[in-house]
């Protein structure tokens, strides 16, 4: 399935006014389980630091929803959000100017090449590394770009069914992925190779999260891929499924998992 064109279509619908884009961000925060896990880790990292002058890298910013959330936590934080898609970067800069979020800036950069030595207190990489073949090079660049004591936070699919791949004969639900998911030990070893010494990794998307993901993301995207007429039915679909997805997301984010289709990884320089 070509996931990016569907994401772009959804983005175009919600990008017509700043109010709609804000609504889009809030809906993503509620529906996307990875956001629940990422926000939990960001809250832990930021506790007691909202009055500090901190510099943050959103490495692979996509729609910009994580930059939006971070920029709203403290006006003293400066966020640089980078992505390879020029149109998306220009669009995000325009939106952030419109709403007055002056502590965030978007730029076109290739993470395989981008390095800004000893600059950032935090680097964020949410559902990015599964799209990049040269992952160790990216980890090395981020390690070099962090200040001493700086942290990298990663959300990415695991090899326990990430990208909805459960056996060797299956292909990824999202064709744009270059890998179906990371082995939890593999990604830690790659981070050590890049220079990180302290690393913590845990599974996300356990049983509750996998059900929620199918209801909130997989089935709607499959239907949108089959026919754009489903856009008209989408609000009614979520009216029924939304409460269940919220409960399942809360359960997943509140529970430790022995296995899961996602990984949350923290690494310190």
How many β-strands, per DSSP?
A: 7
Counting DSSP H or I runs of 4 or more residues, the number of helices is: 9
Binned, the helix content reads 40-55%
CATH class: Alpha Beta
Mean pLDDT over the residues: 90
Any idea what the CATH architecture is?
3-Layer(aba) Sandwich
Q: Give the CATH superfamily.
A: Vaccinia Virus protein VP39
Give the low-pLDDT segments: none
Brief summary:
The chain has 269 residues and is an alpha/beta fold. It has helices at residues 3-14, 18-31, 33-46, 65-73, 86-99, 135-145, 184-193, 207-226, 230-253; strands at 54-59, 77-83, 104-108, 120-126, 146-157, 198-204, 262-268. The chain has a 7-stranded mixed β-sheet with strand order 3-2-1-4-5-7-6, sandwiched between helices.
Your description of this structure?
- This protein has about 270 residues and is of the alpha/beta class.
- The chain has one domain: 3-Layer(aba) Sandwich (Rossmann fold).
- The model has no long low-confidence stretch (mean pLDDT about 90).
- It is globular and about 50 Å long.
- The protein has helices spanning about 5-15, 20-30, 35-45, 65-75, 85-100, 135-145, 185-195, 205-225, 230-255; strands at about 55-60, 75-85, 105-110, 120-125, 145-155, 200-205, 260-269.
- About 50% of the residues lie in helices and about 20% in strands.
- Strands 3-2-1-4-5-7-6 form a seven-stranded mixed beta sheet, sandwiched between helices.
- It has nine helices and seven strands.
């Amino acid at each position: 399935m070509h996931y990016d064109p569907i994401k772009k279509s959804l983005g175009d619908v919600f990008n017509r006014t700043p109010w709609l884009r804000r609504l889009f961000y809030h809906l993503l925060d509620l529906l996307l389980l990875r956001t629940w896990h990422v926000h939990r880790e960001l809250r832990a990292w930021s506790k007691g630091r909202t009055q500090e002058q901190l510099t943050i890298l959103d490495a692979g910013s996509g729609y910009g929803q994580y930059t939006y959330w971070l920029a709203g936590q403290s006006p003293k934080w400066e966020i640089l959000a980078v992505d390879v898609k020029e149109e998306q970067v220009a669009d995000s800069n325009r939106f952030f100017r419109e709403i007055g979020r002056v502590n965030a800036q978007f730029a076109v950069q290739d993470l395989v090449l981008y390095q800004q030595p000893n600059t950032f207190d935090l680097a964020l990489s949410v559902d990015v590394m599964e799209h990049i073949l040269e992952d160790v090079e990216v980890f090395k660049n981020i390690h070099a770009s962090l200040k001493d004591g700086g942290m990298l936070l990663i959300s990415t699919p695991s090899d326990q069914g990430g990208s909805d791949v459960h056996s060797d004969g299956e292909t990824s639900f999202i064709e744009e992925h270059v890998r179906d998911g990371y082995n939890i030990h593999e990604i830690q070893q790659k981070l050590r190779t890049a220079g990180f010494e302290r690393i913590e990794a845990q599974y996300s998307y356990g049983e509750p999260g996998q059900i929620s993901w199918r209801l909130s993301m997989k089935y709607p995207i499959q239907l949108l891929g089959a026919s754009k007429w489903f856009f008209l039915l989408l609000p009614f679909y979520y009216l029924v499924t939304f409460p269940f997805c919220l409960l399942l997301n809360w359960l997943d984010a509140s529970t430790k998992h022995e296995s899961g289709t996602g990984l949350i990884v923290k690494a310190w320089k």
